Amino acid sequence: MQSINDVLAPAKLNLFLHINERREDGYHLLQSVFMMIDWYDKLDFELLPKQQIERIDVSTQSENHQKNALPANDLCVKAARALQKATGCEHGVRIFLEKNLPQEAGLGGGSSNAASTLLALNKLWNLNLSRQKLIEIAVPLGADVPFFLFGSNAWVEGIGEKLEPIKLDSRHWVILKPLQGVSTQQIFQDSGLQRNTKTVTIFDFAARPLGFGHNDLQPVAQRLCPEILQAISWLKGFGLNARMTGSGSAVFANIPEVDFGQVVSKLESTPHQNGWQLKVCKNLDVHPFAGWASSDR
Predict the structure, then answer these.
(1) Which of 71-75, 174-178, 191-195 is predicted least confidently?
(2) Among residues 41, 57, 144, 216, which one is catalytic?
(3) Which fold has domain 1-297?
């Protein structure tokens, strides 16, 4: 059976996230820098006939990789169906997902899975669609999906669909995910959300990329999920200035290279709250499978 295996779906960090306006249709205009990191979900794809689409969870908790069918309305399935509809493709697919990225974290895991699904099926189904065409298909799937198809780190505006490539220095980052998650929809609907941050430019960010701006979603998220502030305080104890990524609840901080070994040793040896996930990562320059769509930027 024809298949594509070991397709990686990287996480992302929002180095800042400003909400500039709420449109009449309810969508929010934002500015952000999206940065991919080397923390991944992994997907396998098997060709199926007659437009049949299946999505299987591959548990890493058991030696035998127990497989359980998950709900059919997740973003991987939605992405596959959207691609079928846009192209009239008669092929189907069975998708196996090994989930490593935490959910309700602000790391874009579901969106990244959808983007990697579009990239893999573009190849498996021999569609040969351009990157721009895949992005057009992806826009209705969610604000973060176009970014993961874009292929590089990006300056992001609009509702997430306006992307400009940006070069970022290679750095180490620590990500800390509290046990409690937070609902993106709940944050954006909260009356206390700041929605009128003054617009900035990419040159403002480039002048001081570390610590630039803020995350407008963080005050609301901290009120809904007090563990976010606890995680930030825990990292501050190591001399690290942390903030929330996306809609949370994960927080992150840059680890200075001069102190990297010492800081990581302390981070990994110091107990934190039960259920919290700690990961040390590096940022990526390009998506690992960006070449599966032709570049037309």
Answers:
(1) 71-75
(2) 144
(3) Ribosomal Protein S5; domain 2 (3.30.230)
